[in-house]
Amino acid sequence: QVQLVESGGGLVQAGGSLRLSCAASGSTFSINAIDWYRQAPGKQRELVAEFTRDGSANYADSVKGRFAISRDNAKNTVYLQMNSLKPEDTAVYYCHALVRINYWGQGTQVTVSS
């Protein structure tokens, strides 16, 4: 069993920043397997950021240059630093891990006002 708990969402003005955290616990696995998704109202859930096997990261085109995924292995925590936020970034953000099966956090709301 894997537990993922997100935190750090909130309301921010356009151009502002937020940092989301995803704390993992439970079964032993590499936190490199954790990635970030988001789901805006009326839209499908989409992948925002993920680690690649060579240690770098992939990002959705819409967030490239503004978001950064990072990790702290000692804390079993993955972060999503979000800068230059836009109203279209408003969504519920989820961390996710595929460890034999899909695990999802409960989600954290990010609202960006114009």
In short, what is this structure?
The protein has 114 residues and is mostly beta strands. It has strands at 2-7, 10-13, 18-26, 34-39, 46-51, 57-59, 67-72, 77-82, 91-99, 101-104, 108-113. The mean pLDDT is 95.
Q: What report would you give on this structure?
A:
With about 110 residues, the chain is an all-beta fold. Helices cover about 0% and strands about 55% of the residues. It is built from no helices and 11 strands. It has strands at about 1-5, 10-15, 20-25, 35-40, 45-50, 55-60, 65-70, 75-80, 90-100, 100-105, 110-114. Strands 2, 4, 5, 6, 9, 10 and 11 form a 7-stranded mixed beta sheet that branches. The chain starts with a strand and ends with a strand.
Overall pLDDT metric: 95
Give the terminus-to-terminus CA distance. Answer: 40 Å
How many separate helices? 0
Fraction of residues in helix: under 10%
Coarse morphology = globular
Strands, count: 11
Radius of gyration: 13 Å
Largest sheet: 7 strands, mixed
Query: What are the secondary-structure elements, in order, as H or E?
Result: EEEEEEEEEEE
What proportion strand? over 45%
* Sequence stretches where pLDDT stays below 50 over 5 or more residues: none
| Oligomeric organization of the protein chains | single chain
Which structural class best describes the helix and strand composition? mainly beta
Could you name the key traits of this structure?
114 residues; seven-stranded mixed β-sheet; four-stranded antiparallel β-sheet; 0% helix; single chain; globular; 11 strands; mainly beta
